[in-house]
Write a structure and sequence with these properties.
single chain, 264 residues, Rossmann fold, three-stranded antiparallel β-sheet, 9 strands, 33% helix, 19% strand, binds adenosine-5'-diphosphate, binds ligand L45E5XJ5, nucleotide-binding, EC 2.7.1.48, PRK/URK, Uridine kinase
Length: 264
């Protein structure tokens, strides 16, 4: 896929937002964008879903239609394409992202979304922390946590209404493929997160803190074009207001955000 170089070279700050299906990853990203107001022009969101492999065989398509194809296994994704796009964006180049159609289980022919370099890139997906090479691209890793029953309820509503799938197939796929793969491949990656957001997009406190951090990054003089459009890479932790040694730390109501201190 072709990539073009932008005028201003930027080192974007890349934030990974992982979590189980229907945990609220895209809703969290949407709320972050909403709250950024005018600054959202400098932020882009990329979904791992856009990188589902294309051209399943006829047999695979039939399996997918019966809810028997495993879209929750790491092999379901075109990993190299996703890495290539992120590397290009990191190098300040624009690139093209396929448009995925969940009804046909394939990419929309000849349709792409062009993404330009940005100062902050939000990347969301179920397995973005699974592969070490992809995981290491993130300056900040967030895991969206939601009760499994709530996720199942949302998934059923979404797949039957928005993706036109029969309820029996949705439940069959969830119980036989989605849930076991979540436990095998997604949940174990929670340990890599710097921040865990309980209750997803309902968690105003956690979302507010992340927005505040992005605002600080974007307002930092080192991220302005006059200073080479560079965002300081060492800022890979959540810095809270008043966290200096002489001032009291901001109090975060317990249960709203888990900040992981384990080095990784
Ligand atoms: N906090 C919430 N309350 C109610 N519905 C929600 C909430 N978060 C997400 N949803 C709904 O659940 C579905 C999945 O949410 P989404 O953000 O797309 O999750 P993910 O990106 O993790 O799959 C969507 O239909 C969305 O509108
Ligand atoms: N053709 C497809 C492709 C993917 N899925 C399911 O999508 C889920 C990941 O997307 P989320 O927005 O829910 O994170 C994943 O659990 C796949 O099962 C699908 O059903 N059909």
């Amino acid at each position: 896929m072709s990539a073009t170089v932008n005028d201003h070279r930027k080192v974007p700050f890349i934030i990974g937002v992982a979590g189980g299906t229907a945990s609220g990853k895209s809703s969290v990203c949407a709320r972050i964008m909403e709250q950024l107001g005018a600054l959202r022009k400098r932020v882009i969101t990329i979904a791992q879903d856009s990188f589902y492999r294309d051209l399943l065989t006829d047999e695979e398509i039939e399996k997918a239609q019966r809810g028997e194809f495993n879209f929750d296994h790491p092999d379901a994704f075109d990993h190299d394409l996703m890495l290539g796009v992120l590397n290009n964006l990191k190098d300040g180049k624009s690139d093209k992202i396929p448009v995925y159609d969940f009804r046909s289980h394939s990419r929309v022919k000849d349709q792409f979304e062009t993404v330009d370099g940005a100062d902050v890139i939000l990347v969301e997906g179920i397995l973005i922390f699974y592969d070490p090479e992809l995981r290491n691209m993130f300056n900040m890793k967030i895991f969206v946590d939601a009760d499994p029953d709530i996720r199942l309820a949302r998934r059923v509503a979404r797949d039957t209404k928005e993706r036109g799938r029969p309820l029996t197939h949705v439940l069959h796929q969830y119980l036989n493929l989605v849930k076991p793969a979540f436990e095998e491949f997604c949940l174990p990656t929670k340990k890599y997160a710097d921040i865990i957001i309980p209750r997803g997009a309902d968690n105003d406190v956690a979302i507010g803190l992340i927005v505040q951090h992005i605002q600080e990054l974007l307002r930092s003089p080192r991220s302005s074009p006059e200073n080479g459009d560079r965002i300081v890479e060492k800022e890979n932790h959540l810095s809270l207001p008043n966290s200096g040694s002489s001032t009291p730390r901001q109090r975060i109501p317990s249960g709203d955000v888990h900040i992981m201190s384990r080095p990784h």
